[in-house]
């Protein structure tokens, strides 16, 4: 009731002031009323009205320290930092024990990038203020700006000890724990906080996040469950709970939680994608396809959505559709080597070896050096009849995999193919030495060469040794 009266008085003060401006009548307001009027306009970005209120306020209360400090805020808002500094000097000379002077000076220092000076100024304010929570919060932010994360964490903890309702400080202290990779310490801190404030949905949510980071998904679900029980509109908790349930392979329950987020707010492509993934894990491909399509409809630039459609189409052996979806993903992120590798493999499946070779080449240009894909590239070049280039690719990858039998057997086949029988026999003997069982590679992938006398003679000669 008391707060309602204050709010009503505040509205009446603003109404009286604006009425005064319209009628040009001069009405009296005390300095606190002027202060609230100026800060209201400042918060609303109405600089002209804030200046007008300050001018009138100082005319009626020329010796008001609070209005001088509001003037400092106005100067800082306008980025007139030197003027703010000079005014603070004047105020400090008269009222050296006013904590607001040091708080505002810390803001000036911070805006100038002098964060260490801002910290020292806030330390002075701490000795003078009764509102410790606000000053500790400001101090924590300054420590963050100079990467003193441990000190920032301590400051935010002090802030919460003086005001347990400060949710920003709660988020900030957990940010510090996260930054320092102190998940267990964060759990201890949150558990103690929840003991004091068991109905803090924010604390339960953050506790769930810590358990998720430690891959303790059962505990994460437990914590997120409490957050949603306290606040059944807590969208973020339902989302995180869904992710945790996915990790536990409880896909139906995960879907239920994701669906709640769709009911609480407009659908997001991320949530639609997660639901699609759950249905895919449940082998319900039609439903998975529907949600993947909804995801890309919601956000056509979501390359992961197009990729999910690609992979699901491959599972269903609908390769032409898969290629169409994959092209959409590539158009969005043409510098993703993984997409080009998929492009190569998919075109290979469709027996379009020229396009497959294009995919392998593009992936390599983008930095992909996965051995199996370079082997696939060489196999594609072999099919295209570009034997010399296929040999070059295999020799390049041998710099990293000198003893790889898959490469050695292929090199032997390629050298036999270009009628370099000495090299072919040399590489085949090395391959047989490294891994005799893998000679089946030739039989499986290169049946014509398998039947050649050069291959058979080399194998016979090797087995007689």
Largest sheet: none
Q: Tally the beta strands.
A: 0
What global shape is seen? elongated
Number of helices: 28
| SSE succession | HHHHHHHHHHHHHHHHHHHHHHHHHHHH
- CATH homologous superfamily assignment of the domain at 266-332: Tetratricopeptide repeat domain
Overall CATH class of the domain at 266-332 = Mainly Alpha
**What share of residues are in beta strands?**
under 5%
Q: For the record, give the distance between the C-alpha atoms at the N and C termini, rounded to a whole number.
A: 100 Å
In the CATH classification, which architecture of the domain at 266-332 applies? Answer: Alpha Horseshoe
| Category from helices, strands and their pairing | mainly alpha
Radius of gyration: 35 Å
Quaternary organization: single chain
Report the uncertain regions: none
Q: Could you report the average pLDDT, rounded to the nearest whole number?
A: 89
